[in-house]
Here is the input.
Amino acid sequence: MNKIDELKLTSLAMAKAKELGADLTGIASVDKLKESPSHTLAPQISPVDVGQGKNSSNPGVVTWPEDGKSVIMIAVSHPKKKPELDWWHGKYMPPGNKIIRQVIKGLKEWIEANYSDVTAHHMPYQVEKGGIFLKDAAVLAGFGCIGQNNLLLTPEFGPQVRLGALIINKELVCTGPISFDPCTGCEGYCLKKCPQEAFDKVIYSKEKFHQDVLPAIDGSYDRYKCNEQMLDDENTAEKKEKVLYEEKGEMVRLVKYCRNCELICPLGNQPVN
Here is the structure.
């Protein structure tokens, strides 16, 4: 694929993703992503810290598609006025996740139908299930930066987005990263709002992990405490009445996970022009 073809596919794929329902789209290099902060830090830390469980033998190690060259990233807005997009119905995924899957599925089908020499791999959210660290990919694709709440912050929607990714076997034109730093000078509302005080002390240091870019900017994000809050949210849901999950016709528990550090961010509460 020559440069003109790369430019054409980049433009068409991003336009198609928008047509299918993505609010943001961008391209990142797989080689650059392999060198990104989460992908280099995760193999050094506990399996629990990267969401893989205590019995994982390969903590934080991504299973990359052998032919992967570029990551096509999408983001779907998750505004405060639509909290139900992130509500889990028992074991069934939230509506927001379904939107992301539909966009990714449609984009993959479109690419493979129109480009016989292009293969596309849908990358799961969970690293232990073959996924990548989506926030790092989003930063490299030009969506924004990682903030002091350890979330992706975008100029358009703040942290109120959900992410999805395709990896393809062609080198496309990268669309990022961008220069964006909304946390400098901020009063840190997100840090004060955490019910588990997950940002109260430095967990990761530059000296120990030999890298400058750390979780929550200064290494203060404690994933253990965040996971404890998620368990609390699940246990609280178990005490409530079941609700009807209409798509399956089942009565299930409705789980509403904490979004305090996301929803308090001033960046996500600005009107979109």
Summary: Confidence is low (pLDDT under 50) at residues 48-57. The first strand starts at residue 24 and ends at 29. The beta strands are 24-29, 70-77, 88-89, 120-123, 145-146, 152-153, 161-168, 243-245, 250-252, 254-255.
